[in-house]
Amino acid sequence: MHESIPAAVISLAALLASVAGMGWLALSMPVHAQQVWGAALSAGMGRALRVAGILALVAALALCLAVDHATMACLVWMMGMTAGAVSVAMTLAWQPRWLRWLAPWVRVRTTGR
């Protein structure tokens, strides 16, 4: 039984990496940045969020591969990415500002009128 606990923890880490990756990819898009922060991101910050999202999804795949054989790992990875995408999409539709916790380092400049 003690062998399954690390596998479960690694699988949970893969799921969290998938959610973070999908969130960062969504936040890198101007329309979603507008929803979350009320202003567009700089081009450099958008690029950094895209890279972070891609790296998080690759890390999720690596974590899945550490737990299972390749065919099962790919299936679990795809399911994790699907769960991440759906959860981010629902959060954007319901409470988009909640996604700010995914990127607390982002600072946007709002122009006063």
Descriptive account of the structure:
By secondary structure, this protein is an all-alpha fold. The chain has helices at 4-27, 30-37, 43-67, 70-94. The model has no long low-confidence stretch (mean pLDDT 91).
User: Ends: how far apart?
Assistant: 62 Å
Helix percent band: over 70%
User: What's the average pLDDT?
Assistant: 91
**DSSP strand content:** under 5%
- Return Rg in Å: 16 Å
Shape: elongated
Give the number of DSSP strands.
0
pLDDT below 50 for ≥5 consecutive residues: which ranges? none
Run of helices and strands: HHHH
Q: How many strands, what sense, and barrel or not for the largest sheet?
A: none
Number of helices: 4
By helix and strand content, what is the structural category?
mainly alpha
Which properties best describe this structure?
4 helices; single chain; mainly alpha
Question: Could you give the topology of this structure?
Answer:
Layout: H1 4-27, H2 30-37, H3 43-67, H4 70-94
Helix pairs in contact: 1-3, 1-4, 3-4
